[in-house]
Amino acid sequence: MVETVRELPVIDDVALGAMFDDPYPTYARLRREAPVAWLKPANIALITTFDDIIAIEKDDTTFPANDPRSLMFRSMGHTLMRRDGEDHMTERRALVKTFSPPMIKSHWAPKFEDFVEEQIAHLRTKGGGDLFAEYCAPIASRALAEVIGIPEVSWQDMLWWSQALIDATGNYADLPEPWARCAQANEGIDAAIDHHAEYWRRAPNPSALSAMLQAGFPMEKIRANIKVAIGGGMNEPRDAIATMIVALLENPDQCAAWRADPGLRRKAFEEAVRWVAPIGLYPRKVARDTVLSDTLLPAGTAIGLVAGSACRDERKFGPDAGRYDLHRPQAPHLAFGSGPHFCLGAWMARMLVGDMAVPALFENLPDLRLDPDHPPRWGGWVFRGPLSVPALWGI
Ligand code: HEM
Questions:
Q1: Domain for residue 5, yes or no?
Q2: C-beta neighbour count of 31 within 10 angstroms
Q3: For the segment 4-29, what is each residue's pLDDT rounded down to a tens digit?
Q4: Which terms are listed as keywords in the entry (predicted)?
Q5: Domain for residue 29, yes or no?
Q6: From ligand 1's centre to the CA of 324, what distance in Å?
Q7: CATH number of the domain where residue 57 is located
Q8: Quick one: which atom of ligand 1 is closest to the CA of 307?
Q9: CA of 298 to the centre of ligand 1 (A)
Q10: Using CA of residue 284, residue 350, residue 236, residue 31, what is the dihedral sign?
Q11: Distance, CA 154 to ligand 1 centroid (Å)?
């Protein structure tokens, strides 16, 4: 039988604003009708099925991460996330110890505990508020500042920088304002790196900045990798904390099971990031003409691996993949990517979010519930999560 190969279908009837509000109906349609398709308003080909993304991640010669057109080059410089082969592994190896489970447990977890306790003490002074702004963001920012080695930076600055980097990296519409904010963030981050580098040169510690200085990396590489950690290590845990809180509060039966059985903690976390993947899309390039899902991808095509869609692929997770279900049979998801670029901060996120921040919140705030008058707001498709989590609790 001769298989037919089709030209790359062009999707021009989807507005990016609608994708920001809710990309899932579009993803479902693409998985069904055009799993490899050119999204014209964003100038990128979307890969939306689980199996296609896994196949791509196994072949970094055909699908390299290093694409000089990637918006990340302009927003952060040449980070390890956009390197391939030995070039990538050399940088990654220098950072592995900082993010390893033993280092997280022994060195970073006690600091994370302090941040969680301090934010809970703050919440205890009031009976309600936006958990996204008052709990998720400060904890994620403070934890990240410690681990990457710029602990004197305020969590508000971390938050602002991270958002500026992310908005520029996802600025497929090429608006001028995100680029201006990004330039300002770059200035602030470079100053913080220079300031803290002085400490770690004198007295090294396990942070990412210190590890890269110890490894003798040039400052240009160090700056780029600290920026990718700020852009990719702050919003994601913040959004994962918020997503998991909403998921549990909206599903009281599952919440009761999770509270009764600490053995469900890891599953509840993994299901939260599968349900709403904080990094909705990450880019690759096509190095040579290739066929995927019977569709021709010409050499040079910029592609986006849509983790947000793959994590809801009904062929992998069943017809109710759009539902949060911590009792779902466990299956690997793609929220942390896969292959050589698998998220370096995955263990940090698992511990900070799933083992500490979310359980401590439910243990310490009696009668925690969503504010019935102000439902959580959601947004994003390149990066996605709650924008606010208004809640009430007893004091
Ligand atoms: C729930 C939280 C998180 C999610 C969902 C997440 C997701 C991801 C994804 C999808 C990738 C792959 C990107 C690609 O292949 O292009 C990635 C890579 C990466 N992540 Fe995370 N991340 C999270 C937390 C963190 C944290 C806390 C850090 C800490 C700094 C971090 C640092 C990194 C780094 C450095 C890479 C690049 C690894 C490489 O290229 O070898 N992430 N992450």
A1: no
A2: 21
A3: 899 999 999 999 999 999 999 999 99
A4: Heme, Iron, Metal-binding, Monooxygenase, Oxidoreductase
A5: yes
A6: 22
A7: 1.10.630.10
A8: 10
A9: 28
A10: positive
A11: 22
**CB burial string 125-149: b at 16+ within 10 A, e below:** eeebbbbbbbbbbbbbbbbbbbbbb
Residue 161 placed within a domain: yes
Q: Are strands 290-292 and 10-11 parallel, antiparallel or unpaired?
A: unpaired
Ligand 1 atom having least distance to the Cα of 352: 27
94: Cβ below 6 Å to ligand 1?
no
Among the residue ranges 22-26, 68-72, 198-202, 342-346, the one predicted with the least confidence is: 68-72
Q: What's the CA-to-centroid distance between 391 and ligand 1, angstroms?
A: 29
Q: What is the count of structural domains for the chain?
A: 1
The encoded tokens of residue 30 equal 């693409």
Q: Which atom of ligand 1 is nearest to the CA of 99?
A: 29
Which range marks the domain in which residue 125 is found? Answer: 10-392
Output the CA 31–ligand 1 centroid distance in Å: 25
Q: How far apart, in Å, are the Cα atoms of 73 and each of 68, 169, 173, 195?
A: 7, 9, 16, 24
pLDDT confidence tier of residue 3, bands split at 50, 70 and 90 = low
Would you say residue 1 lies in a domain? no
DSSP state string for 369-395: EE-TTS--EEE-SSB-EEEE-EEE---
Contact 366, 124 (CB under 8 A): no
